[in-house]
Design a protein that fits this description.
Elements (H helix, E strand, L loop, with lengths): L25 H13 L2 H12 L10 H9 L6 H22 L3 H18 L1 H9 L2 H9 L5 H12 L6 H24 L4
Helix pairs in contact: 2-5, 4-5, 4-9, 5-6, 7-8, 8-9
Length: about 190
């Protein structure tokens, strides 16, 4: 025998019905993509995704980031700065997924954000791709509790400071400020 496993092959039953149906309504997806393209929303979503990258593409942390950390009694080391950038990217993705008027536009904006990041910040992009931070942050959004509190606690863990309330409070402030900024950015584009 050739070792070919044919256990997943479906035999047509002659009814004309597909044995397996997709959860995606292909025609509705195509119509949505076309509508968003022609009303200008797709171009806006791309521009939004491209512009958001500036919020976390800094080589050295901006002064306001150090000021926020100092308010919480933290002198951020390189590991903490990297986790702050990861949290900022997560906050952007979370915001694009929750505040844009359709899943299609969210996907366009998020894809553009990552394309620009990969192009302009390849080392950071690779670090983010290898990190498991987003997996943990997304678990925080599905636990039914206060998302900001859960994300903040996860941020502290990722910084290696699990029960350090200074890191928890910094994580919460950063998440809330970022989501607010990204929400305003989305609203500024006035999607049709």
């Amino acid at each position: 025998m050739n070792g070919f496993d044919d256990s997943d092959i479906k035999i047509a039953d002659g009814s004309g019905e597909a044995a397996h149906t997709d959860d995606i309504d292909t025609m509705a997806f195509i119509e949505e993509a076309k509508r968003q393209h022609f009303n200008g929303n797709t171009a806006k979503a791309k521009l939004l995704g491209r512009g958001i990258v500036s919020a976390f593409s800094y080589k050295s942390a901006p002064d306001e980031l150090f000021a926020a950390a100092k308010r919480h009694g933290i002198d951020p080391d390189p590991k903490t700065v990297l986790q702050i950038k990861f949290l900022s990217v997560f906050s952007a993705e979370y915001s694009l997924e929750h505040f844009l008027p359709s899943q299609h536009l969210s996907a366009v904006a998020v894809d553009e954000m990552y394309d620009v990041m990969r192009e302009n910040e390849p080392e950071f992009f690779d670090s983010l791709a290898r990190s498991s931070a987003f997996s943990f942050y997304y678990l925080c959004t599905s636990d039914g509790g206060n998302i900001a509190d859960s994300v903040a606690r996860e941020f502290a863990k990722l910084c290696g400071r699990t029960d350090d309330e200074r890191f928890v409070s910094l994580g919460k402030e950063l998440f809330e400020v970022n989501v607010n900024v990204f929400c305003r950015a989305v609203n500024g584009f006035v999607f049709a």
